[in-house]
Amino acid sequence: MRFILATFSCFAISVSLATAQNIQHETLKISVIDVEGGEATLFVTPAGESLLFDTGWPGFNGRDAERIAKVAKENGVSQIDYLVVTHFHTDHMGGANQLASKLPIRTFIDHGVTIDQGKRPRAAFNTYADLRSNSSHLMVEPGHLLPLKGLEVTILSSNGKVLDAPLPDAGSKNSHCESFTFHGEQITDRYGDAEDQRSISALVTFGRFRAVIMGDLTWNKEYPLMCPYNKIGTVDLYLVSHHGSHTSGSRALVHAINPRVAIMNNGPRKGGAVQTFEILRAMNNLEHLWQNHYSLEASHAHNAPNQFIANLQYDVPLPDGEDIHLGPAHWIQVSASADGSFSVTNTRNRFKRSYESTE
Fold first, then answer.
1. pTM above threshold 0.85
2. Closest Cα partner for 269 from 290, 231, 243, 251?
3. What pLDDT score was predicted for residue 14?
């Protein structure tokens, strides 16, 4: 009997070690896809479920849908299980129809109905809503958890509302609120900031690894989320708000969440504001900033070194101020482990940096 128990114990220890090794090698994959300044960030869980934030622009011969589909294939994804449209601006939802022709979209997640009333934004929303009507649809509120296996995705803001209470292990007083200055009405985007301030933002937790993705949540909306108490806590990875635009990414947010790494999904002329670089560079804890594009506004004085930038090329802007680039596009790839360690790779040059767990 003792021999049987000893054998069973050895077997149990072997199974436990094997299980631990399997868990250790499971990774969350995050692809920050170049759609010339839209969000377009793909999360792929160890279980193979896919969560995509935003779809890029429409038109351009299906440029952005093609780029997303290529990255999805590289990550073993044949369908989008959950699509989060952070808000109803064309650069965030416009590519949904073209993407759906390449990859099935199972569930749409958004804040409901656009508040923009202009002819163009209403037409873009109606096109998206028609597509959405043929699939499962979830409207989310702050505090909601998305139904993914092995990944905790907590909604921080939606439809103009933010968390009304701190998350577990958060809630410390935010000293950066004391110097917070609200932006005036003159600081807006092309259609005003009505939709931007209704952006869905989320905290993604995989074991001890924590990342935050903010959509285009505005500077002024960051205040009730972060002040007087930090409702999020600290994170490892900050997916830079609003393409790095000056209308988002206050010190009250960025310095309080205190990321080790930031990734800016900007375009050459979209986002990448000097103010954003200055706020990021003023952090003591930030190890590296990665970018999807070299920012023409920021110039060499503020951009990250070239090895940290996925796309160095740019093209002549269109009359409405956007760039058109139909050539090859590179992206920033993140692989995260449940122990909190992660790596970041620039797919243009395979330049890679690894970040050890802090616990």
1. yes
2. 243
3. 38
